[in-house]
Write a structure and sequence with these properties.
Helix content is 51%, strand content 18%. The chain is of the alpha+beta class.
Length: 168
């Protein structure tokens, strides 16, 4: 043993140092690429801002975000108002055809129920006969009429209530 360091130890340390150098060199390249991207993004952010500084730009962006948020809230309020108004429209319909008289073979008589979300509206009934036809309208309030309803009218009302539900 000539000294503290033998040729094997020196060669091993040289290998470790070479490996460490390669790792640091690759890390340096990765950091350089990331820094280049960051620099490019910063230039894009500050592009055309000869007079304004970054704080003023951010302040304008926050103002725009507040405007967009306010506009979105107004839109949400309008949608809620429209949904509330639609609940009162007579959008549910039930239709039943039938033969009103046994001696007549056609099913030209019908009952048509038109109601809103609270089952309020009207039931129209047309009774077809060979010599004449009659049409009746009965108001409906929360699924109930002050007038006596036929079985066909009740069926039409049940169909109308089912047609508007989202779970049907």
């Amino acid at each position: 043993m000539d000294g503290w360091f033998t040729k094997e130890i020196v060669a091993g340390m040289a290998g470790v140092l070479l490996l460490l150098f390669l790792v640091l060199f690759i890390w340096n390249i990765v950091l350089s690429v990331k820094f280049g991207r960051l620099k490019k993004q910063f230039r894009r952010l500050t592009q055309g801002t000869s007079r304004e500084n970054l704080e003023q730009i951010l302040e304008k962006l926050f103002d725009r975000m507040d405007e967009v948020s306010h506009s979105q809230q107004e839109s949400n309020d309008l949608v809620e108002q429209m949904q509330a108004a639609l609940r009162h429209h007579k959008g549910r319909m039930g239709f039943v055809r039938y033969a009103a008289f046994q001696n007549e073979g056609s099913d030209l008589s019908f009952s048509l129920a038109l109601v809103d979300d609270s089952n309020s509206g009207v039931v129209l009934t047309s009774i077809y006969g060979r010599d004449e036809s009659r049409v009746y309208a009965k108001p409906i309030d929360k699924g109930v009429s002050v007038y006596q309803m036929s079985e066909e009218e009740k069926q039409a009302l049940v169909l109308a209530a089912k047609n508007g539900r989202s779970d049907s």
